[in-house]
Amino acid sequence: MVQKAKILLVDDRPENLLALEAILSALDQTLVRASSGEEALKALLTDDFAVILLDVQMPGMDGFETAAHIKRRERTRDIPIIFLTAINHGPHHTFRGYAAGAVDYISKPFDPWVLRAKVSVFVDLYMKNCQLREQASLLRLQLEGGQPATGDAKESAGLLAELSARLAAVEEQAEALSKQLDESADAAAVATAAHLERKLSGLRRALDALEPGAGSGAGQVPSQN
The Response regulatory domain covers which part of the protein (predicted)? Predict the structure, then answer.
């Protein structure tokens, strides 16, 4: 059974959380509510999340401050953050969102289809990342056990090939997206694409390190930060 990804929804208004759940329920993932920045940080202490949807305007700890805490923690600093805001104070306000570590900045009211599509991209990337790490762990165990080139090794090679093919498909989609963005001045979309490219590059390096003949570090997966 494939484990579902967790998506953290942070907003102080229950009706907004309900609306987000209605929009994202079609993704069939685990949606976790947090009604404040403090509650979000507590949830992040124990669970791993594919993406965080974070409201900017909240009493007490606002979205910017919450994001700053998230980015300072080693465990959570690489989780993509999508800011949601009902206000628009111009480029400076948007820049503050990106400076806080957001990969996207969406103004309310937003297009439900667009929001769902953007979240889906990060969920898919997260799932592939988890799958790669799981397979890398199995391969490391085989390498450390000194297993000969038997059927298990052949099966591992097949898994590597399958993972490489799946990653190549995502890389192709990301490349097509980047080409489309070359013709657009949407800073939010460009930032999202750049984040995806960094993650994909890290996954590709990790996968290449597991290929036969990759060298003495073949059993080690490089950092994907």
Answer: 6-123
Task: Count other Cβ atoms within 10 Å, centred on residue 199.
Answer: 21
What tens digit of pLDDT does each residue of 108-149 get? Answer: 888 999 999 999 989 988 888 887 777 777 777 766 665 544
Report DSSP state, residue 88: -
Distance CA 209, CA 225 (A): 16
Handedness of CA 116, 85, 95, 180 (dihedral sign): positive
Residues with Cβ within 8 Å of 140's Cβ and at least 6 positions away in sequence, in order, are 219, 220, 221
Side chain identity at residue 16, one-letter code? N
Query: How far is the C-alpha of 183 from the C-alpha of 185, rounded, in Å?
Result: 7
For residue 73, the cross-strand partners are none
Q: Which residues contact 209 (CB under 8 A, 6 or more apart)?
A: 217, 218, 220, 221, 222
| 21 within 8 A of 46, measured Cβ to Cβ | no
pLDDT per residue as tens digits for the range 144-172: 665 544 455 556 566 667 777 777 777 77
Q: Which residues contact 3 (CB under 8 A, 6 or more apart)?
A: 130
Among the listed residues 14, 10, 123, 21, the one whose alpha carbon sits nearest the alpha carbon of residue 64:
10
State which H helix or E strand residue 83 sits in.
Answer: strand 81-85
User: Quick check: pTM over 0.70?
Assistant: no
